[in-house]
Amino acid sequence: MPLVGVVMGSKSDTERMQPALDVLQQLGIDHEINIISAHRTPKKAQEYAQAARERGIEVIIAGAGMAAHLPGVLASWTTLPVIGVPLTAGDLKGIDALLSIVQMPPGIPVACVAVGSAGAKNSAYLAAQILGIKHEDIRASYEKYREEQTKG
Ligand code: RP5
Predict the structure, then answer these.
(1) Read out DSSP for 4-62?
(2) In angstroms, what is the span from residue 67 Cα to ligand 1's centroid?
């Protein structure tokens, strides 16, 4: 059963979000992938976020470019933690997405990671840290990864 719901705003985000999927795979974290647009398919965004917890999802990772309202919209419909990944789509190269995701008004938080592939990777590591509070196996695989980092 997937614990992490990875959502991206467009098919065109697939390549940019691949690093997140790779890290989830490496850490052995069961996840699902959906393409949902906050502006093209807003009803789907609502339904996805509202049903996520009941389906066993514990963390949502949402990647989007440009206006990047997807993470905030999903967060508005669920109390699950939402991690937003600002993607480098469009002429502003991710600055737009960064400001949109990081500047959530108070009350509905979205965790904002770095722009681009660093952020995509970190979204998965952050999800592992959150899940590791409850899931010993995920904590162990994440700590193994951190331990390996110290070997340079
Ligand atoms: C956002 O707008 C998506 O997340 C994507 O990064 C960007 C451009 O989308 P497309 O026009 O390629 O579908 O909704």
Answers:
(1) EEEEES-GGGHHHHHHHHHHHHHTT--EEEEE--TTTSHHHHHHHHHHHTTTT--EEEE
(2) 9
